[in-house]
Design a protein that fits this description.
- By secondary structure, the protein is an alpha+beta fold.
- It folds into three domains: about 60 residues, no CATH class; about 350 residues, Aminopeptidase; about 90 residues, Alpha-Beta Plaits (2-Layer Sandwich), CATH 3.30.70.2390.
- The protein contains 16 helices and 19 strands.
- The strands form six sheets. The protein has a six-stranded mixed beta sheet with strand order 12-6-1-2-3-13, with helices on both faces. The protein has a four-stranded mixed beta sheet with strand order 17-16-19-18, covered by helices on one side.
- A hairpin with a 2-residue loop joins strand 4 and strand 5.
- Helix 1 packs antiparallel against helix 2, helix 7 packs antiparallel against helix 8 and helix 8 runs antiparallel to helix 9.
- It is globular and about 105 Å long.
Length: about 525
Amino acid sequence: MKNKYTSTDGFKPRRAGSSLGEEHSKKHQVSIKSAEKGSLRNIERFDVNESLKVIGSIEKPVKKISRRQRKRIAKRVKKPRSLKYKLIRGFLFLLGLALILVAGYTVYKIVIAGGNVLQGNVFDVFQSQPLKQDSNGRSNFLILGTSEDDVNHDGADLTDSMLVVSVDQNDNDVYMFSVPRDLYVEYGSACAEGYSGKINSYFSCVSAGTDAQDEQERLTGVQKLVGDIFGLDIQYGVHVNRTVIEEAVDAVGGIDVDIQGSNGDSGVLDRSFDGACNNTCYYVKYDNGVYHLDGVHALYLAQARGHSAPTYGLSNSNFDREKNQQKILIALKEKATSTGTLTNLTAVTKLIDAFGNNLRTNIQTNEIRTIMQVTSDIKSEDIHTISLFGDDDAVVTTGSYGGASVVMPIAGIYDYSDIQSFILKNLANNPITREAAPIIVLNGTDKSGFGQVKADLLTDEGFEVKLVDNAPDGVYEKVEIYHIGTESSATADKLSNMFNVAIKEGMPPIDITGDVQFVIIFGATS
């Protein structure tokens, strides 16, 4: 009878002749004999132990590794870093750290300068708020220059430099004109000179205080006065002293200015400033041409108006000075926004210091980034200067009023209508208004006042109607439009479309004098 063995923990005792080999068979037989003498429990434990030893001695098959797995394993193995690698890594770290420090320092300078110059939270400088605009989509700035930083200057609080800069932030163009410092105006309140006087005295009349609130009141007051005179909504005011020109020009490494003598003179001379070198040098003496100016020479050119002999090339006095100031401002803008300046940390920080120490404004901090972006986008050819004096379409002249030499409107003292029309012509976004082509309207109907009705309609559309009259006797079409010359093409197109007629060639049936460009006759069938 065969012996039966109980399995233990899932293992079945091995028998002789099994595949585990002869040695195991012998041991197993010995175990059986011992079992007859001992307990079954010992046989089972021994058999399990022997089975586990055999299983552990069986060699496991070697698993093959794919090429992809070998590559992954190789990547995990860290190779020792070379000295070259460590040097490059260290250099890049130091370079990055230096850039962070430079950027931080620049931001610090901007924040400090912004706190002195701008209105609002200084950290709003990182925002980009669109600029305020007038009805023509333009942002208008009034820049006022005084000499309060010159203790030896008589009338240091007078705004001898007054410049209006009009910016279109969508079309990226600029128009600028100088406000004559001697323009005789009504103040609207009692000042040191009375209720009227030269416009350059009004700045200190608004407020005599010296704190930040007084500064803002002065800017706002002069903005309104100038805006009312020139028919503009001036949203921003900027007040600078004479030092800002010198320091800003030096900060950018100097500027290039085209200097030209007025009225055909071969150059410019003004010896008013040569006392600084005991009259052994010339601060303002140039032949006609382009010159590279440092801060001192740019400052003196901006002040030169030939008011004491010997002098030449500045016969228009303050009007010549205003033109040179505009040239200096344009040249400074061009140099400050050039790549060479913007990538020069020293130049940038000096420029920030120049403005931070010598400029005050009511521009908000969240608007400054927009101004910087618009300024960098504007090209030199898109900056236009407007002259109120000396050209064929001049709107101001010089004269005597109240016993003083002043500037006044050609239309008459306190009559600013022509000035406002002239400014609107240049700044309006309507091409019809900009061309301002003179138009004559003639009534060829039998209806009294019909011509004036049509003239009012044209005026409302922005046309420049100069005269309304009756047409000579004759038979006319419903609308006849005559174009004299070839200028003002936008006006011609607008009139043609407005009345659905073709522009007639040839001369109209009346004599034309002056600068009239269009004659419109409304016929009997209108």
